[in-house]
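User: Predict the complex.
Assistant: Input components as received:
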Amino acid sequence: MSSTDSTEIAKTDDSSLASDLDKSLSDSISKKFSNVEIAYVKPDRIRVNVKKEDIIDVVSFIRDELNFDHAESVSGVDYPEDKQIEVVYHLGSYTDTSLDKKIIALATRTSREDDPRPGNDNTILPSLRDVFPSVSFHERECFEMLGVYFDGHPDNRRLLLPEDWADMPPLRKDFRIKGR
Amino acid sequence: MSNQVYPKDKEILPGLQIEKVDDRIMTLNVGPQHPGSGHMRIIIKVDGDYIVHTDPDPGYVHRGEEKMAEYRNYITNIPHLERPVIHDSCNILYPYCLGVEELLGLEVPERAKYLRVIAAELNRCVYIEYWLAIYGIFLGHSTMFMWPVGDRELLIDLLDKMTGARVTHAYFVPGGVRNDVPPNFEDVCLRQVNYFEKRLKEYADVFYDNPILISRTKDTGVLSREDAIKLGTTGSVLRASGVDFDIRKKEPYDVYEELDFQTSVLKEGDSYARSKIPWLDMFESCKIIRNALKKMPKSGSVRVKLKPKPKGEDTEVYRRVESGRGALGMHIVSRGTPQPYRLKISVPSFRNLIAMPHLLTGEKLGNMPAVYWSLNYWPVEADR
């Protein structure tokens, strides 16, 4: 399955405003990994699209070589027309003061099924919990809200939804709020 | 809508799994309606007096803010997005407004930038005072409940004058602020903030230098610098563990770059340090407000005119600010419609949630309120 071919976020021309450090960060990622797509380099914001098979390698490189040490946010985005769900990790750094402003948005995609059975279908991504322990509650939220099962996460349990919730994951686009 | 029945085999519901009864270990449900835990449940296992396992179970007040935001346009999203943390409503709208401005390409007028900073700092103090009151009462210190609740009225009055509402202000809009301040606002603000700062100093005598508070919070729930970074904590929890990271300094937004203030950092990482950081922050907030009042342009427009239902570009933004609890980020995905395609609110309380099992496990049960509330955790915000 190709996860980055139909990326919605188009390449933009903001790169002229980005600093040299932004460019060197994105260059070091694209030099190291050939099958990684740099979607944009805006001032202080870099977005990297990776295939789900490569995400552990790329994120380990970002942690060990580029000194990013924590995840700020994990957002799942549903794209029903592509039959894909995207998960975006926003990574930041506390230890390296030159990276204070920088955020790397690391995005990956997985397939999506029309009749979701969370945990028992093909909507699976590798968990980044072993690399960044800070994602552990964020990935739990993503599992219940979009039905993405994080393989390797020891704690894929319900978090925010009520215990008797028996409908589809609510942040999928085909879940509609009543009356809207 | 569908005929599925959850949970399937790969999902276990928190607190509902069948467990073997142990003759030593007892399970306690703290919350969700118990005031000692705010509006969340913490499933605690105790062996005698000691906590051996902690399982935080938020979600009691989950309202689906992120889903609701996908159905409303960029302007009508404002009033409901501040609901997760109404005592800090300016700061939760701040990253949203910054993000939408980036999407729509708006330039905020200079006076509006200063008004935003003043409102955000007043709001930060209002939030911290409310949190401090709760922290005081859960440590059995009822004076520390009465004083902050009374003093925060001063600032609520100011915000009332600015915005017309005591708590849910809806003051920030993409492109500026909703309205200008009344003519005599600067003088009143300066007077009340100066008095407020004088009152803050008295908290040291009654609370922070109090031997009973010190004995309950010193060396309890110690979070080391390495763990604070590894767990991705933020705000007062992070700064109490010796990491100097404040978004207002590190990634200055609006006019914070031009204002004179320090960030408060302590090294100890215990509950006492965590409870002291917000108090120190309030002095800096007073400094920022005075500085901003001096530098603010005396007149000028306070918002740019928007077309009805403005459409964002086909892109995404991630903006963050420093709220009363820590870094608050918003990830807005736009696909050229008047509504955001996806809005993710990355709240500091949810990010600090991971520190809770880390710190509570191994503590005495009696220390639970001291450690739990020192995390500056706001359950309603974590649930969104």
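Chain B has one domain: 65-352+373-383.
Let me know if you want any component modeled separately.
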